[in-house]
Write a structure and sequence with these properties.
With about 375 residues, the protein is α+β, with helices and mostly antiparallel strands. The protein has 3 domains: about 110 residues, Acyl-CoA dehydrogenase/oxidase, N-terminal domain (Butyryl-Coa Dehydrogenase, subunit A, domain 1), CATH 1.10.540; about 110 residues, Beta Barrel (Butyryl-CoA Dehydrogenase, subunit A, domain 2); about 150 residues, Butyryl-CoA Dehydrogenase, subunit A, domain 3 (Up-down Bundle), CATH 1.20.140.10. Strands 2-3-7-6 form a 4-stranded antiparallel beta sheet, with no helix packed on it. Strands 1-4-5 form a 3-stranded mixed beta sheet, with helices on one face. Strand 4 and strand 5 form a beta hairpin. It starts with 7 loop residues before the first helix and ends in a 7-residue tail after the last helix.
């Protein structure tokens, strides 16, 4: 990647993903959501084409690329009206953590299924009373002979009903120091004591959110990912990719909203011409185009820094990208609805539902307030506020 443009390979990747996703599109995605069905056929086709595991090492069934590649896949899917949240979770978070810190046996066991889509993995960190504050997580892991026993609750966990396993963040007591440390476990969704309840949502999406109950779930020793004492580093290894992917998810949705608005502004005629000829319509759409392109650039910068191994710089850029992309997406959705007038509230044009979907992007996976806290402290050197 040069300073201002992606490689020809990355650009070709985007074209091919867009071509595949366009066979499905927003109508397919919305129909599956409203009927309570899943987008399994699209997911598996992405796996067969090699896109789900493009960031995973080749020896485990992946494409050997980086976060920038899987982020491009995520963005192009969303831009075609198929924003797939599990792209953020399974290959980017779980795939990255396991590829980077898992044992050889764990990589062989779990990564091929993540790559081909047959072994999707969810990620469980947030809790009812802790959010993503790992210091306040109450899900515990304790040793019992050669096994681990997990107990706790998680909330806002995406795609549990489509996953074979869940990468669970818990806390365990260090045998030497007595201090509590974060640890990561892969938990099968059919494990005894593991239960999940879907949370009713206003968002029109085939992917559901869940509350998870972990009631003395017994796991073998090899369910612990990587080093028992390396939990914090392993956890944060998945959070930068999460923010980068969320940014691509947001910019993809924003592009979709803007494309719909521009198409309508060109064809809808009132007062002897297309409404797009009026500055009251044209200027807000032009603003959105500028905001989206700026957010995309910051996202690409964050991905490039991460793939180069510059963790701190990548973290700063990823947080900024997440902030900018969420704002751009919210604005684009609002302007798309306004451009359509009354038709913007109809199912036919497929933009009204984006108002809620993009608003969530300001909250998850990290809120804009927490991003501003990070930038205030780490970029500007201001005193800690919490």
């Amino acid at each position: 990647m040069s300073t201002f443009s992606e490689t020809e390979e990355r650009q070709e990747l985007r074209k091919q993903v867009a071509k595949l996703a366009s066979k499905y599109g927003r109508e397919y995605f919305a129909e599956k959501a409203r009927s309570g069905e899943k987008t399994t056929d699209l997911w598996l086709e992405l796996g067969r084409a090699g896109y789900l595991g493009i960031n995973v090492p080749e020896e485990y069934g992946g494409g050997g690329g980086g976060i920038g590649d899987i982020a491009a896949v995520c963005e192009e899917l969303a831009a075609q009206g198929c924003p797939m949240l599990l792209m953020v979770v399974s290959p980017a978070i779980c795939g990255t953590v396991i590829a980077k810190y898992g044992t050889e046996e764990q990589k062989q066991k779990w990564l091929p299924g993540i790559c081909d889509g047959t072994g999707t993995m969810a990620f469980a960190i947030t809790e009812p009373d802790a959010g993503t504050n790992t210091h306040n997580i109450t899900t515990t892991a304790r040793r019992d002979g050669d096994e681990w026993v997990l107990k706790g609750r998680k909330i806002w966990i995406s795609g549990v009903d489509e996953a074979s396993n869940v990468l669970v963040v818990a806390r365990a007591e260090d045998a030497k120091t007595g201090k509590v440390k974060p640890v990561l476990f892969v938990v099968p969704t059919d494990a005894p004591g593991f239960e999940s309840n879907a949370i009713p949502m206003e968002i029109v999406s085939p992917e559901k959110q869940f509350q998870v109950f972990i009631d003395d779930v017994r796991l073998p020793a090899d369910a612990l990912v990587g080093d028992e004492n390396g939990g914090l580093a392993q956890l944060f290894a998945g959070l930068n990719p999460e923010r980068i992917m969320a940014s691509s998810f947001n910019t993809g949705i924003a592009r979709f909203a803007l494309d719909r608005a521009v198409a309508y502004a060109k064809e809808r005629e009132v007062f002897q011409g297309p409404i797009g000829g009026h500055q009251a319509i044209a200027h807000p759409l032009a603003q959105s185009h500028i905001e989206i392109e700026m957010a995309r650039l910051m996202t690409q910068k964050a991905a490039a820094l991460y793939d180069e191994g510059d963790e701190f710089a990548a973290g700063e850029a990823a947080n900024m990208a997440k902030y900018a992309s969420a704002e751009a997406a919210c604005d684009a959705a609002d302007r798309a609805v306004q451009t359509h007038g009354g038709f913007g509230a109809s199912q036919e044009y497929g933009v009204a539902g984006l108002l809620v979907a993009t608003r969530v992007g300001r909250i998850a996976p990290v809120s804009r307030e927490m991003i501003l806290n990070f930038v205030s402290m780490h970029s500007l050197g201001l005193p800690k506020s919490y």
